[in-house]
Amino acid sequence: MTGARRTLPQVAVATPPPFRLPAEHFAAALGWLALLALGLPLVAPLLARGQVFDPGVFALVHVAVLGVLASTIFGALLQFVPGGLEVPLRSVSIGHAGFWLHQSGVAFLVAGFWWWRGWLQLVGWSLVLLAVGAISINVLPARRRSTHGKLVGLYLTVAHSALGFAMALGFARIGSTLGWWPLDRLGLVPAVGVGSRMVPTFLLAQGDDRIRLRLILALATVGLVLYPLGATFRWPAPLWIGAGALVASGLAILELAARWFGRKHRRLDPALRHVAVAFVGLAASVAWGIALWNDPGNLRRWAAYVTVATLGWLLMLVIGILAKLLTHLSYLNLFRTMPGFARAGNPNLLLRPDWMDGALALLALGAVGLPVAIERGHEQAAIAAAAVWSAGAALTLANYVRMFARGRR
User: Fold this and answer.
1) Coil, helix or strand at residue 13
2) Which element (helix H / strand E) includes 298?
3) How many CA atoms lie within 13 A of 54 on its CB side?
4) Are 21 and 96 in contact (CB under 8 A)?
5) What are the boundaries of each domain within the chain?
6) Would you say 105 and 128 are in contact if contact means Cβ atoms under 8 Å apart?
7) 121 within 8 A of 111, measured Cβ to Cβ
8) Chain CA centroid to CA 131, Å
9) Which residue, 10, 8, 148, 142, is CA-closest to 81?
10) 154: closest CA among 198, 90, 212, 218?
């Protein structure tokens, strides 16, 4: 062959994003966690009295779900896509823009619910919707372009579709009473999808779980579509079919988690103990969900169910995962500028393990005690349990403050 040279097509390299992008999401999640810890004892007596539609309750639910949970998941996704799916982000700048849209949107929403101002809620939902669009630009194309992790990519697609559907209901029902009920379930899909890579990796428990993951995805998709439709439009058949699918998906996740922990090849460190306890919280939330079938009009039981699913399962899981992600990313990216990190010599040593175990005990005790007190209508017990959970969250936050303070010395 003579003449012109043959050039090979350029292939984008899936490099990790700048540390600032996931770090700002994780920092915001910790900030919202602090606000949740302050507000939970204030709304606990309202929940025990069955006042589940009080503006303060709405506000705190959005702090937990869209503030802590969504901020952590978005930050993890922006870090996970290049590494887990081996596809580079489309735009880091859009990632930063999505972060500020999301945080400002949650702030407007929380203010709108706390002071019960419809226009603030509408502005908040609009900003959050734009933020979801921004992260979709970076995350959703990865599924089509990835040669690895297509099943995880499918989880991300379903999660974004479910989030968009719930937000559409929120737009249609701003200021209505049922706008927040579906939100606690939206963390299920991305938590399982991304967790199916992270948790076995942390446990050194690799294996082929694709059949189970496809089953969980199918059940969760049916539940996330039919249950909100039935609840919103008062259609009994979709409501019960969707509820059954969500319960079945929860049981399937528990069976999958048992497989992960059963084939682990390492001892559980404090972060992984948080993850293990989170699956216990999932089992408790499934049990509460089944109990709701016999008394679907019991508002205190609904509040107890949402509380245990949010505090005991989803937030416990993201606190454990965050303890792994933030320490490792901080160590790798700040090693040269943080002399304290260099002296530690290991990212697993950046957080005090005794503080983490103490926080875990407080978080678990509060996550169990609060829903029990809510269901039984004991206001003082609810306040005490909420204060215990808040103390666990405060100890978690203090551990991160200590980590960065020691790193600078």
Assistant:
1) coil
2) none
3) 17
4) yes
5) 18-146
6) yes
7) no
8) 16
9) 142
10) 218
Q: Which two tokens stand for residue 79?
A: 């870090």
CB 61 within 8 A of CB 306: yes
Q: How far apart are CA 200 and CA 119, in angstroms?
A: 44
Question: Residue holding tokens 């049990």?
Answer: 287
Q: Smallest Cα–Cα separation from 91: which of 33, 132, 56, 134?
A: 134
pLDDT attached to residue 182: 39
According to the model, what pLDDT value does residue 3 have?
46
Q: Give yes or no for residue 200 having a pLDDT over 60.
A: no
- Res 256: pLDDT: 81
Stronger pLDDT, 272 or 383, i.e. the higher one: 383
Q: Which phi-psi region, left, alpha or beta, contains residue 86 (left: φ > 0; alpha: ψ -120 to 50)?
A: left
Geometric angle at alpha carbon 100, from 104 and 15, rounded to 5° = 155
What's phi and psi for 373, nearest 5 deg? -65, -40
CA distance 44 to 202: 35
Number of H helices, E strands in the chain: 15, 0
- Spatial CA neighbour of 301 closest among 373, 375, 240: 375
Question: How many Cα atoms sit within 13 Å of 128 on the Cβ side?
Answer: 27
Distance CA 319, CA 33 (A): 10
**Phi first, then psi: what are they for 72, rounded to 5°?**
-65, -45
More reliable by pLDDT, 365 or 407: 365
Tokens coding 295: 């008394």
Per the structure block, which two tokens stand in for 353? 């393990």
Q: What is the DSSP string of 40-95?
A: HHHHHHHHHTT-TT-HHHHHHHHIIIIIIIHHHHHHHHHHHHHHHS----S-HHHH
pLDDT of 271 over the 60 cut: yes
50-82 core/surface letters (b: 16 or more CB in 10 A; e: else):
bbbebbbbbbbbbbbbbbbbbbbbbbbbbbbbb
N-term to C-term CA, the chain: 63
3 φ/ψ sector (left φ>0, alpha ψ -120 to 50, else beta): left
Is 383 in contact with 41 (CB distance < 8 Å)? Answer: yes
Q: Which of 70-84, 218-232, 308-322, 323-337 has the lowest mean pLDDT?
A: 218-232
DSSP 240-298: HHHHHHHHHHHHHHHHHHHHHHHT--S---HHHHHHHHHHHHHHHHHHHHHHHHH-TT-
Which tokens in the block code for residue 150?
């297509």
pLDDT at 6 exceeding the cut of 50: no
For residue 142, is pLDDT > 90? Answer: no
